[in-house]
Design brief:
The structure is a single chain. By secondary structure, the chain is α+β, with helices and mostly antiparallel strands. The protein has one domain. Helix content is 30%, strand content 16%. The chain has two helices and two strands; from the N terminus they run βααβ. The chain has a two-stranded parallel sheet. The longest helix is centred in the middle third of the chain and has 11 residues. 2% of the residues are buried. The mean pLDDT is 83.
Length: 50
Amino acid sequence: MKIAIATDHAGLASDGMYESIKQYLTELGHDVADYGPGSLDMEDDYPEFM
């Protein structure tokens, strides 16, 4: 199954939970498409880009 995941600042700051979920889904054999940010940047405020 193809699964798309993404997160916001809180997801990246959650002690590796985002990466753990991505790894878990991959280990189950799913095709994971990661649409989240590549790094945590607290100056990157989503509403400013809307």
